Every structure is written in C-alpha cells, then in structure tokens.
Amino acid sequence: MKGNTLPFELIRDLQNIPGIEIFDMPSDRKNFSRDFFEYSPVLQTKLKGCCADLIVRPLNVESVGLVAGKCLEYGIPLTLRGAGTGNYGQAVPLCGGIVMLMGALRKIRNFNTINGEVTVEAGCLLGDLNKYLISKGRQLRLLPSTWRSASIGGFIAGGSGGIGSVRWGFLRDPGHLLGLEVITVEKKIRRLQLDAAAAEALNHAYGTNGIITALTLATTNAVDWQEVSIDCEDWSAAVQLLLSCSRAAIELHLCSLLEQEIVEHLPSWSGPPLGKHRILALVAPDSVSTVQRLANAVGATFHLLGPEKLGSGNGLRELSWNHTTLHMRALDTDWTYLQMLLPQPELEAMNELKSRWGDDLLWHLEAVRQQGVQRLAALPIVRWRGVDLLNQLMRHCKNVGAIMFNPHAITVEDGGLGVIDVDQVETKRQFDPKGILNPGKLKGWS
Ligand SMILES: Cc1cc2nc3c(=O)[nH]c(=O)nc-3n(C[C@H](O)[C@H](O)[C@H](O)COP(=O)(O)OP(=O)(O)OC[C@H]3O[C@@H](n4cnc5c(N)ncnc54)[C@H](O)[C@@H]3O)c2cc1C
After folding, report:
1. pLDDT digits (tens, 9 = 90+) for 41-63
2. In a mutational test of the pocket of ligand 1, which residue from 63, 80, 101, 411 has the highest number of ligand atoms less than 8 Å from its CB?
3. d(CA 326, CA 82)
4. Taking the CB of residue 371, how many other CB atoms lie within 10 A of it?
5. Residue of 36, 146, 410, 414 best suited for mutating to test ligand 1, as the one with most atoms within 8 Å of CB
6. pTM of the model
7. Residue 36 gets which letter from DSSP?
8. Which CATH class name applies to 226-404?
9. Which run of H or E residues covers position 404?
10. 108-221: CATH topology
11. What tens digit of pLDDT does each residue of 222-279 get?
12. What is the topology classification, in CATH, of domain 8-101?
C-alpha cells in the first residue's frame, strides 16, 4: 500500500499500530476529505481540490495517540473527522496529510443518575446518545438539525447550537460542556482530563488545538415534545408571535419562522402550504394551550400535529436550522444562505433588507437565547448571484445592525465574530506546538 506523498516509513509505522483501519483508495480519500461546504459557492471554489493523502480509523483511544505521535514525528498534517456534516469545510484537510475518522470511539462511559451528567466518547452519534439519555429520563439540551448523523465530538468542535437554543443558548455558553478527555500532539503525547474551564478553549476550535476523545456534558429532563405549526398571513404579526412565544413562561425546544415562499417549497410534513408564513415549534405538553392562545390572539391558525416521533426522520426538526437550506437546495442548488443575529427591533432591519434584495432573500428565523436574552437569529436563504453581490448583501446586513456569522469562510475566527480567541491559540501552543492539527483553520495561529 502506498500513500500519495507520504513517506513510506510513516505508512509502514501506521500499519504496525494495533487497532487501526487504513483507507488509501482514491475514492475513500476524496469522500473523507469533504463535508457539506457545497452549501457555499465561495467554499466550493476554495476547497474543491483539497484531498487527504491517507485516511485512518483508530478503534480505540490508545491508537489515536499512536497516530498523533507518528504524524508529529514525520511532520504530517492531521485533520479529525466526526461524521463530516460540517458546513464550512471544518474537516477538510487544506494541506493534505492524514484524515483521522473518530467514529469508532462511541462508548457511553458514564451516566450520573444524580445530576444527569453524561461522559461519552467523541465519535458517538448524537442520535444514539440522545436515545440512551431518553431511556434514563434525560435528553440532550442542544442538537444540530443533523442530530441523527452527526457526532458529539464534531458538534462540540465544529457546531454552535440548534434545536434547544431557544432555551439553552449556544454550545459555548458556560454550563453545557463540563469536561474533556484530550490527546495532545506534543513530543510526549499526553492523554489529559480537562475540567470545564480548561475545556472552553477546545469548544468550537475545529479540532485545531487538541484531539477530543471523550466529553462530559450536562443534560436536561426528557420532555414529550409536541409538534405545533402556526400559519400567519402577515409577516410582522408572525415575527411578533415568534417573539412572544419565545418570551412566554412556557417550555420550548424549537421555535422557527419560515417566510411563505420557503413554506411552499418544503416537504409537507408540517402540513400543506396555505400561502402563509409558518411557525414550527416543539412545545412541552403543559405549554401547548398557551401557544394556542397567543396564536389566536393575533388571528393565526394553530395546528397541533401531535407528539414528536423521533424514529421517523420527518419531524419538524428536519425542517429547521440548516435543514431548511438543505431542502431549498434540493430543489435548486443556486440557493445558499447566511447566518446572523438580528438587531433589535428586528422588523425594521428585515424590511429594509427585503426591500433592497426582494425574493433573492427569503427569511428563515430561529428564536434563540443569547447571553440570557431571547433574540432572533436568521438563516435566510439567499439566491447566489456571485461573490460581489453576496459581499454587498453581507455588508448591508451589518449596516442594519446584524451580527454576522459568515458561513462562507474557512477559519474559526472568520466564521464567528471575527476576533482571535487568545485562549484557543495559547492552548494550541501547548497541545500542538508544531501546528500539525487541521492547519489553516485557526487564523490566530497562522
Ligand atoms: C443540513 C445541515 C444542517 C445543520 N444544522 C446544524 C445546526 O442546527 N447546528 C449546528 O451547530 N450545526 C449544524 N450543521 C453543521 C454540522 O452538521 C454540525 O455542526 C455537526 O454537529 C458536526 O458534527 P460532525 O460529527 O459531522 O463533525 P465534522 O463535520 O466531522 O467535524 C466538525 C469539526 O470538528 C472537528 N472534530 C471532529 N471530531 C473531533 C474530535 N474528536 N476532536 C476534535 N475535533 C474534532 C473536525 O476536525 C471539524 O473541524 C448542519 C449541517 C448540515 C449539512
């Protein structure tokens, strides 16, 4: 077996590691070098040629450390991959080298029956973890809409929030991630147990400053979520209703609002399109009557769809967050998207943007809790008309006061608030001093 540009000795050493699978077929190297960056035409151009020289799949934590040691010894880039569902090319090896699949590490190591904390290996799928927790009367607080296929390690290292953000905010808020087991890429490879404070620097760092092998997370009580859809003729009434639901004394797991043009093109799981804007919500049983009352008060049409069926794959969750973009792109790949926190008051800014961009900008809102305050995030669907117009649109959004999270950028910083997090960089200096891990993704290091 021969890697593309890797030293023969490295490949031989890797083959001698017990508990490891190695893939070197061109089709494997190509498939495991991609994620869902195609949602961004900008990233499509930038990332399409990136390919790993070799794929490895360690079967236990010891082998992870041995692979890391060999990459360091030979100076070969090492990029980690959970399920590869990221949207910004987080798991794409910009400089080739080795892609390490973390999916075989999926044990649930401990569940604390007193406080609900769970310790789980990084490759465990969120769907499997959530199912296990439900059997214990608990559930995950936050899930991406890719919760069936994505891994917990990839969610912490590459995700931000999603289903649950309406009550629990975002992954980097203190209280969600309580500890990490990490393998470092130093001369002497170490396996460390980090507490919640030390773990913060690896949260949303795209696997650039340590290899996460296990995580300890807070969980919450399981709820038998009820699916609700609400149709609203008037956009401003729909936005007000979204806000009043998210601010009421009720329990919600999801509260999304889709502009009528989007509703028309989505699968009909939330009911047939009625030519109106639609709110999709996951509501606790004791909160349904309040949501109905709030909807009636603004003349909206309320539908109780019934309890969520998690086994089905066609729940309201699968119409929310970036799944909305997925469905729109399934019809027409010229659709792309943006991500932002809307300014307050929201309507004025949205109306200004709509009047300039018309049907090239379709609103998709998500009610979220941001630093303790109920706010509206937007993931508008955007018609691709070239990079200049996309940049113009992003500038316009900023000018009306939106905080942008650019999904057309490669680095941790450019996809976030644009600022360098010194703790992330300092942790990389300690745990990956030679810069082997996912090179090119941490701007503060570059
Ligand atoms: C349709 C669609 C909808 C989505 N919805 C959401 C959403 O609602 N919310 C959201 O936050 N995201 C969303 N995403 C993005 C993505 O699905 C999630 O962030 C997901 O949790 C990533 O998990 P993964 O296992 O696929 O990670 P990957 O894509 O494999 O990896 C993500 C990053 O984590 C790093 N990484 C992986 N494993 C480890 C490890 N063990 N140690 C250190 N670093 C590691 C990788 O190197 C990479 O940088 C969506 C994507 C799509 C395509």
Report:
1. 999 999 999 999 999 999 999 99
2. 80
3. 20
4. 8
5. 146
6. 0.97
7. S
8. alpha beta
9. strand 403-404
10. 3.30.465
11. 999 999 999 999 999 999 999 999 999 999 999 999 999 999 999 988 888 899 999 9
12. 3.30.43
